[in-house]
Amino acid sequence: QVQLVESGGGLVQAGGSLRLSCAASGIILSINDMGWYRQAPGKRRELVAVIRSSGVTNYADSVKGRFTISRDHAKNTVYLQMNTLKPEDTAVYYCNTGPIFKLTWGQGTQVTVSS
Questions:
Q1: Most CB atoms closer than 10 Å: which of 8, 45, 77, 111?
Q2: Residue 13, CB half-sphere, CA atoms under 13 Å: how many?
Q3: 35 vs 37: CA distance, rounded Å
Q4: What is the chain's pLDDT, residue by residue, as a tens digit (115 residues)?
């Protein structure tokens, strides 16, 4: 059974940084294309970053230059480094396969950016 567990969220002031982690069991993340998604209140879930099994990364325009997706094969974990955070980055962040999700969603991790 595949399980995804996101962590690392919190409350941060605008301009600050956070690093999110997605630990997985039942799936080897490094051989899958993985993505970070977010869902703000009242909005649809959106894809913000993808890391392909090849290592190629892609980002939504809204986070390009500020967010970095990476992975650690040994820890079977995918990360999202978020810098220069803005209030509009406030959302629950999830990981899943990307750019098309195929797995059951985890509980997500809340990121709140205050102005």
A1: 111
A2: 0
A3: 6
A4: 899 999 999 999 999 999 999 999 999 998 999 999 999 999 999 999 999 999 999 999 999 999 999 999 999 999 999 999 999 999 999 999 999 999 999 999 999 999 9
CB 87 within 8 A of CB 14: yes
Strands 34-39 and 91-97 turn out to be: antiparallel
Q: Which residue has the tokens 């919190």?
A: 10
Contact 27, 2 (CB under 8 A): yes
What is the C-alpha separation between 54 and 102, in angstroms, rounded? 19
Give yes or no for a contact between 93 and 36, defined as CB atoms under 8 angstroms apart.
Answer: yes
Query: Is 10 within 8 Å of 82 (Cβ atoms)?
Result: no
d(CA 87, CA 77): 26
Altogether, the residues listed in the chain come to a count of 115
CB atoms near residue 74 (< 10 Å): 7
